[in-house]
Amino acid sequence: MPRVTKLIKRSKPQTGSTGFLPEIVAHMRASRDRLCEEWARRIIEAQLLKAMSKEEVVAEAASIYDNYVDVLETGAVEALQAYARSLSERIVPRGVETHEVVGIILILRDVLLRSLLQKYHSDFGLISRMLDAYEPATRRIVVTVAAGFVQERQRIIREQQDAIRELSTPVLPVREGLLILPIVGMIDTQRARQLTEQLLRGIRANRAKVVVIDITGVPSIDSTVANHLVLTVEAARLLGATAIVTGLSPEIAHTLVTIGVDLTKMNTVGDLRGGIEEADRLLGYRAVRINGPFDEEKGR
User: Fold this and answer.
1) Taking the complete model, does pTM exceed 0.70, yes or no?
2) CATH architecture of 17-162
3) Of 49, 134, 234, 290, which has the fewest CB atoms closer than 10 Å, so is most exposed?
4) Cα–Cα distances in Å, from 113 out to 28, 39, 57, 65, 124?
5) How many Cα atoms sit within 13 Å of 44 on the Cβ side?
6) Residue 52 dihedral angles phi and psi, to the nearest 5°
């Protein structure tokens, strides 16, 4: 009887795009120094990261490169997001713009892609598999880094806006028991809310009995802000302080009446000087002349 030989078909190596990533990562690690050097050179030639020295660009490029390759290898988006936040915290205060960060990541993408194309140029099938594996992963990296950078810039902008608002609405202690809150510029809902919070903190911290809110420098207010002003006066009263509103322009007064704000709930005085005089009266201060200049003493 003739001998039968059983043929066993060998399975082909994995050809899916995901299975190709380890080979891409291995190439990037083996070529790290050369590719990092080329990337840093192109960043400088493109005049990106101009706020940083050449040495800083080279060092940062090496760090970004290593994290880029790590994410390609592991797919750990959370780690990339954490690194993107850390990177943004380092370079945003240096004045680096959003387009610069996106630009350097796109340059890295191009540098790596060119290197891979040179490696696999003789096999179109391998090039196709390489692109299927590389492109989706690198797009995700670009989006993640850009998003992290934009979020950090937005956080800094919000902090700067809060600081500007706080500076634009200072609560000034004038004398024992008296605060002045001079307001200049437009008041929107957010600023009105912050104004109230600052004033109430000031009343509590200084144990104020009277606060003068001067709105001479406010060109106009809408109904929402007007009602918020009334609530601020009422909140001050609940903390034991009398609020005096000064500097009402005819336009603002007309607006308040038109929208139905109850002015009887507000102690209004024409100007800041009159408001301080009214505050002194409430606190029991009186002005006396000593050798010519006016001085003030606590009334008895």
Assistant:
1) no
2) Orthogonal Bundle (1.10)
3) 290
4) 10, 12, 21, 13, 14
5) 16
6) -110, 150
Residue 146, C-beta contacts closer than 8 angstroms, at least 6 positions apart:
98, 101, 102, 105
179 close to 202: Cβ distance less than 8 angstroms: yes
How are beta strands 285-289 and 294-298 bridged, if at all?
A: antiparallel
pLDDT, tens digit, 9 for 90 and up, residues 63-107? 888 888 888 888 777 777 787 788 788 887 778 888 888 888 889
Query: Is 172-298 a CATH 3.30.750.24 domain?
Result: yes
Burial pattern 115-136, b for ≥16 Cβ within 10 A else e, equals: bbeebbeeeeebeebbbebbee
Where are the domains positioned within the chain? Answer: 17-162, 172-298
pLDDT in tens, 186-233: 877 778 888 888 899 999 999 999 999 998 888 888 877 788 888 889
